[in-house]
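tl;dr need the bound structure. longer version: we got a ligand (fe (ii) ion) that a collaborator sent over and nobodys looked at where it sits. i said id run it. heres the input, straight from their email, havent touched it
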Amino acid sequence: MIIFMKIADIHNLFIKKGIESDFRGITGVQKLLDHKKSKFQKLSLKEQEEFDKEALENPYMDSGVYHIAQDKEIGQVLVGIDIGPEEILLAQKLGNIDLVVAHHPIGKGLAQLADVMDLQCDVYNFYGVPINVAEGLMRERISEVARGVNSSNHQRTVDTARILGVNIMNAHTNSDNMAAKFLMDFIGKRSFERVGDIVSALKEIPEYKEAMKIGVGPKIFVGSPEARCGKIALTEITGGTEGSPKLYEKIAQAGVGTVVGMHISEEHKKEAEAAHINIIIAGHMSSDSLGMNLLMDELEKQGIGIISCSGFTRFSRI
Ligand SMILES: [Fe+2]
């Protein structure tokens, strides 16, 4: 049965999908929201007024709806990994786009990117790092990211959408959760001996196969194809952006041998080398496309047309 969807329905569906594939589980996410609610209730009236109430319902504040020009049933969406004013102009030029969906945060979602990074503490804890150690190391990194995004021109794209009357939203951590869960199931179903075997398996996934055509398929950044992989962790697919580089030593102590991630900075790479952790970089746009494809499948099921742009490679699994 086709369900007609408006923008809020699409956002709510994407949040629900993100929660269902969250490392913390549905109850873990609910606990987090309950904790936020109890903290909110203890605030003064003035503090409650200043508090963004959306945070009490949405566990992924880097994902949301930023401008509704026309609250209509959605028939076709333009989807991209990075949406800037250029893509808003593109949507207008195409003329048959009811909604633009970005992956990377824009507007308020970008300003609140650090808010989702707590998730990483639970991911590290899942792979055996004590929660106190994960929280201790992530605290500094989270405040660093919060300061880093503070100076951005957050509203640039949203302002363009507002002026041109284009509907716009994004799905970031909910989409990355989908990619992480997919990869976890994919890797979990097989047994791997060497790092090169994981890379070969990843190359079977359509998004990575496509990325190989332009030279950005899965690659080993630390280690060699012959190195034995040991326990594989997906600590760097979801949770906002890169975590603390000091965590490589901790996951090595927790028994992890290989990390599969989307992208890695030079500083993180050096720390991984020092901790003897093998690093496989599956690819950035391709991994982001994987998560977005899993969400877009949900729209396609409802008969919504999908046009891809800005690094998003569409592959349907329905
Ligand atoms: Fe990304």
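gonna send this back to them w/ a short note. The longest helix spans residues 131-150.
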